[in-house]
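Next comes the chain:
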Amino acid sequence: MAFEVTIDDRAVVAAFMRAPALITSAMHRTVELGSVDFEGGVIAHTPVGATGQLRQSITHQVSGSGIMIEGRVFSTDVPIKVASVETGRAPGKMPPYAPIALWVSRKLGGDESVIFLIRRAIGRRGTKGAHMFEKGFQSQLGRVNARVNELMAIVRRVL
């Protein structure tokens, strides 16, 4: 799932031409802090699960230079697991034994019959998605927009 906040403004380019160091620094700070905001929102909406590993795997990365800077929020966990938690799992085959057994042992005590029943139920009904990236992004959008507005105030001062 990808979300994007784009600042496509001629004023930013003009300000960059006048004060490249100032605008580069302001852009980098805006993208870094916005990425941290989005990361926090995603973490807050990520289920803990049996181990907390998925929640702990949420991170961000900022790359680029000048006014071409990109911030990403992503998980370093197994992609199929992340996608299943984000969007849910359609009915069909039973899920793998090991993750369900771990969850049952930590949450319910580890009974083999319970493991089978949960796997069968998931296989028959599927699961609902947590939509942690979508919800996390939406929950922080106002805060990130405020950061972008602060950046644009710096651009206006330069011009």
About this structure: The two ends are 37 Å apart (CA to CA). Residues 91-125 form one domain. The beta strands are 58-65, 68-75, 88-89, 127-128.
